[in-house]
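[stage:ingest] chain + small molecule (molybdenum atom)
[stage:ingest] validated
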Amino acid sequence: MFFKKKKPWEFIASSEITPETHYVNRRQFMGASLAFAAGAALRPTGARGAVERLGRLQEPEVGDVTYGENLRDELNSYEQVTTYNNFYEFGTGKEDPVRNAGSFRPEPWTVEVTGEVHKPGTYSVEDLAPPSMVEDRIYRLRCVEAWSMVIPWRGVGLREIISKVEPTANAKYVAFETAVRPAEMPGVRRPILDWPYREGLRIDEAANELTFMATGLYGRDDLPNQNGAPLRLVVPWKYGFKSIKSIVRIAFVEEQPYTTWKASAPHEYGFYANVNPEVDHPRWSQARERLLPFGRRETDLFNGYTEMVEHMYRGMDLSRWY
Ligand SMILES: Nc1nc2c(c(=O)[nH]1)N[C@H]1C(S)=C(S)[C@@H](COP(=O)(O)O)O[C@H]1N2
Ligand SMILES: [Mo]
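[stage:predict] done
[stage:export] tokens:
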């Protein structure tokens, strides 16, 4: 008898993904969502000033939730996934994206594909992620701030997009850029980061089977604005900041591209940014993480995806990946 080995995104059956807005994980989240709401209420809110120092960004929030025991991996609720976000174009608070992204218009949308490709051009979201190719995948998202969520995404493998645009042999890296729309994105009116938000991957990382371009979540075909509508990257073995949102430009390039967080604080954020419990952030440990809304777990090397990615880093110095 032949057993097909399960892919890492198949461990939670897709039948458990429901399109319900208030999907509640039966065993955990009845109590948890109350704890989450209480935590949110206790968390300091209010506008932080324009003078906010970079050193204060991407900082772990501690003391605002009650730690439970290490939890099994269970889906976070739709509400958690769409109301606790990092998307600095809409502000630096966790509730800012959901609060401020309402007037963002993700339609119509085009993505410019440039550089070392045989088929450069302006593509629609449907060109890049045709409905016939869309699939659901459950991934843990591990933020560098030491929290994680388990999210059921919908979208296409980035490798499908790469094969469509046909990189040349000179393409060694892929660079991504987020939209900059001051009228719709209050965060970009302030120099919080060096806009546009930019991220990148080595070409083999981009073509890895795990690397995903999300166009929806929770069994829905569209992505909420605060999660990066209409299309955003998901790179589950790397810290969340690599998973760039609302992408307008994809460039295939020869040299390692400029990336926003590395440029902002090179001593704190690297290009590779692979999840690694043994390499602490200079200001906090990465050994453990808060599994939102109220759990706690040990952090896994490569966020638990070692088997599918470690071959790409053989010979590299683990301690320098940060
Ligand atoms: N354009 C853009 N992309 C971004 C960010 C951002 O501020 N701007 N934040 C990143 C960070 S730090 C994280 S943890 C994830 C959060 O994704 P989520 O809000 O969908 O959970 O998005 C990443 N992508
Ligand atoms: Mo993050």
